[in-house]
UniProtKB/TrEMBL annotation:
PROSITE patterns per UniProt: ABC_TRANSPORTER_2
GO molecular function: ATP binding
InterPro entries on file: AAA+_ATPase, ABC_transporter-like_ATP-bd, ABC_transpr_TagH-like, Bact_Polysacc_Export_ATP-bd, P-loop_NTPase
Entry keywords, A to Z: ATP-binding, Nucleotide-binding, Transport
Organism: Streptomyces bambusae
PANTHER family membership: TEICHOIC ACIDS EXPORT ATP-BINDING PROTEIN TAGH
Family: Belongs to the ABC transporter superfamily.
UniProt-recorded name of the protein: ATP-binding cassette domain-containing protein
Residue intervals of the ABC transporter domain: 35-256
CDD domains: ABC_KpsT_Wzt
Length: 256
């Protein structure tokens, strides 16, 4: 039967290699570390390569929500950055429909500016017009819940707790309909009420727009939010399929 689904992202044998300049050579033993310290500045500096993503291929379709799971350092964030075009690939190709937007809890908002200003800047950075931002402003602030305990939106972001900052970032990014929306751990930081709101919003984004990718260590969030999961381990794709099957296999792997 012909596949009638519309592809939004195609990753074809993607490799990402980081080059770390000024890295010390040798193994992680105490003597190697000591000899590096004592010979500091002398011919010890080199370029070390970290092969973070190794030959990953998948096709994402319109209407899918895909969870990216795997141990620490398995390459999830790197893969998302490559799909978003923020990280060059060493080999392979990424094709995407529209501009994928990467929303991370580390998304660059300005700490010295007020929440209010960051909503406007963030909206402009995503390509919204001033008019669109004006129309959505109250919705974004209400969604974030920042003002539930006082007028925090008019205070600089540095006065926010890390959870509040993450919620505001999510709310700004979620205000726009995206062709491909990628979320890196954003949900894990909010409280229970915020997580429920975000799940609902992800559902809406899936319905109206294209594809949602979610990187998370919380398997329960991935199970509730996604219908498909991709499991990476040491930069390689271990499994790709229905969310239940992949999460079960990953759980069995981590418990073993
Ligand atoms: N800027 C960088 N320079 C060099 N190496 C990097 C850089 N960013 C990540 N790495 C390495 O690439 C590998 C994959 O990292 P990545 O952050 O993509 O993993 P992850 O699966 O998202 O991890 P986590 O679950 O801990 O967030 C790791 O070995 C990491 O040390």
């Amino acid at each position: 039967m012909a596949d009638t689904r519309v592809p939004t992202v195609i990753a074809d044998d993607v490799h990402v290699v980081y080059k770390v300049h000024g890295a010390g050579k040798g193994r992680g033993s105490a003597t190697a570390a000591l000899s590096r310290i004592f010979s500091r500045g002398k011919a010890e500096k080199g370029v070390r390569e970290v092969h973070a993503v190794r030959g990953v291929s998948f096709t994402a379709h319109k209407g899918e929500a895909i969870g990216l799971i795997g141990s620490n350092g398995s390459g999830k964030s790197t893969l998302l950055k490559a799909v978003a075009g923020l990280q060059p690939v060493a080999a392979g190709k990424v094709y995407s429909h529209g501009q994928p937007s990467l929303l991370g809890v580390n998304a660059a908002l300005m700490n010295d500016l007020t929440g209010e200003r960051n909503v406007i800047l963030g909206g402009l950075a995503m390509g919204m017009t001033k008019q669109q931002i004006r129309e959505r402003y109250q919705e974004i602030v209400d969604f974030s819940g920042i003002n539930e305990k006082g007028d925090f939106i008019s205070l600089p972001m540095r006065t926010y707790s890390s959870g509040m900052g993450a919620r505001l970032r999510f709310s700004i990014a979620a205000a726009k309909d995206h062709d491909v929306l990628m979320i890196d751990e954003a949900l894990a930081t909010g409280d229970a009420a915020f997580q429920r709101r975000s799940q609902k919003r992800i559902e809406e984004l899936r319905a109206t727009a294209g594809t949602v990718f979610l990187v998370s260590h919380s398997l329960s969030t991935v199970r509730e939010t996604c219908d498909r999961a991709i499991w990476l381990e040491r930069g390689e794709l271990r499994m790709d399929g229905p969310v239940g099957e992949v999460c079960d296999a990953y759980e069995a792997f981590t418990n073993a």
